Amino acid sequence: MGRLILYALLWILIAAFLLFTPIIVQADAHYDMNRRKLGFALFLYNTFKIIGGYAATYRGGIALHISPQKAILIPYADMDNERKRFSFVRGFRLVAFTLTTETGAEYLLPVSFAQTVLRIVFFLLGGKEEKIENNLWLTDGDVLRVSFRIVAYFNLFMMLCALFKFLKEKIIILWQKTKKKSTN
Fold it and tell me: Secondary structure of 70-99 in the HEC alphabet?
């Protein structure tokens, strides 16, 4: 009987550890307007690379090149459908945000406005002032390069809560549709 209680307690501790341990994700990206490419990398705990490559446009959408032989094609028509699905990103909490922009005088005003808006969004999402860094470099010529790093964390409990909230909303919508059909 004592072993059973020990095993149950051990399983409860393991489950609590897995549910509440923070998982830290870092996303790095660099966009170069002249080359028309967006390079990206996604890391787990700043060490393990999950995915990386570059994104470029093609006639019907966006191509994500994740290896020299493999590309994921995302048509523009499918982007709206993808947006409506469950998103794990909603369960993330921002830790740090670094944005560095190198631009010529032609793009200076829109870029500074965009940096201000991103700073406001970071604060609205609960970011702290010491965790954000904005850099604006003014160069000569028709140049626009944007680099950013986002560090966020989540845990499985937060993801499960977001999933249950999403499912609850879908069930309410389906219930309202069936109720509306039955009253007609």
Answer: CEEEEEHHHHHHHHCCCCHHHHCEEEEEEE
